Amino acid sequence: MIVLPEAVRERAMRLADALPAYVYDLPALDAHAAGVRRALPGIELYYAVKANPDPALLRTLAPHVDGFEVSSGGEVAHVRSVLPRAPLALGGPGKTDAELTLDVHRLHVESPGELRRLIGTGRAADILLRVNLDVPVAGAALAMGGGATPFGMDPEGINECLELVRARDRDRVRTRGIHAHLASGLHAPEMLDLAKAVLSFGRDTGTWPEIGLGGGMAVSYDDPEERFDWEAYGRGLSEMWRPGETLRIEPGRALTAYCGWYLTRVIDVKRVHGEAFAVVTGGTHHLRTPAAKGHDQPFAVLPTGRTGSGVTDEPVTVVGQLCTPKDVLARQITTSVNVGDVIAFGMAGAYAWTISHHDFLMHPHPTFHHLT
Ligand SMILES: *Cc1c(COP(=O)(O)O)cnc(C)c1O
């Protein structure tokens, strides 16, 4: 269960006959991002755009961040169209030659082969070398490092890259430092352990003006009130910082998850082989997050005053309109729910709409609304 802010409740009741819809709470995002910024004095803060590229979200974040981490030419063009002057750091394991020649503030190089192609283009670039360190990432929801993955390169690859830029093109391809994004879903103490490992590796390979520590700060879908401890993280990073170094982080999920709401309406409540199901308009083709991550999406039920039959205080599985058993938004949550109620799924501001298979079954797309 999740506490629904009054402004979201009000909008949900106004939209009740026009659901499904996404509602983004921009004042909440603004306050959250300001808090994160305050907790990280001296640290460069980039937002990982792939978590949610909604233009209004980008504009709301802009005053609180130093730049944006992007993963494709499409994201570069998109952020440029919304915020023409924002610094961009371009990463991603499969950059084409065309993407390598985009004019960005920083380029995260993911392999020696990619560096050779970059040198081959003849373009100038400020690069960070992305390392996949062999460090334990226990407790992570997703591991991009600490083992064989296509993300970044192992320490031998970094040495190979350093040889490459040393041998030639030193002035055109300027190595600014080391970058790592090793895991996601880690709490502040584990994130600080990772930072320590990345910094010590980086400092062993050279004297770099910049070290990128990635994103991956934990978000708890089980307990929406539990938040990443930005103060502890900020304190830990300032203790590790050395003069002359810029430390940069690039969270996505932990910045925008909380500001998004996916609102649906209950079409049917039924019991099948003894279990109660609530079927809602929309589903995981709009909000794939719970299917992708295997969790129950937290929600609140809003009676509309025009509600029909349902169930009271018992475990209910909330499903969408898709003809697949995978279209489950939340499983066996004890609640009361009736036909016609609005269900407001929270924590739908990151890796939600954009990671979903929108046109599977050809239901109408949700509408999008912004609280200002
Ligand atoms: C996705 C991604 C991020 C953001 O990760 P979150 O878990 O959303 O914080 C940061 N850096 C890189 C390189 C990424 O691929």
UniProtKB/TrEMBL annotation:
<keyword id="KW-0663">Pyridoxal phosphate</keyword>
<dbReference type="InterPro" id="IPR022643">
    <property type="entry name" value="De-COase2_C"/>
</dbReference>
<feature type="domain" description="Orn/DAP/Arg decarboxylase 2 C-terminal">
    <location>
        <begin position="22"/>
        <end position="349"/>
    </location>
</feature>
<feature type="domain" description="Orn/DAP/Arg decarboxylase 2 N-terminal">
    <location>
        <begin position="31"/>
        <end position="257"/>
    </location>
</feature>
<dbReference type="InterPro" id="IPR002433">
    <property type="entry name" value="Orn_de-COase"/>
</dbReference>
<dbReference type="InterPro" id="IPR009006">
    <property type="entry name" value="Ala_racemase/Decarboxylase_C"/>
</dbReference>
<comment type="similarity">
    <text>Belongs to the Orn/Lys/Arg decarboxylase class-II family.</text>
</comment>
<protein>
    <submittedName>
        <fullName>Type III PLP-dependent enzyme</fullName>
    </submittedName>
</protein>
<dbReference type="InterPro" id="IPR022644">
    <property type="entry name" value="De-COase2_N"/>
</dbReference>
<dbReference type="Pfam" id="PF00278">
    <property type="entry name" value="Orn_DAP_Arg_deC"/>
</dbReference>
<dbReference type="Pfam" id="PF02784">
    <property type="entry name" value="Orn_Arg_deC_N"/>
</dbReference>
<dbReference type="InterPro" id="IPR000183">
    <property type="entry name" value="Orn/DAP/Arg_de-COase"/>
</dbReference>
<dbReference type="InterPro" id="IPR029066">
    <property type="entry name" value="PLP-binding_barrel"/>
</dbReference>
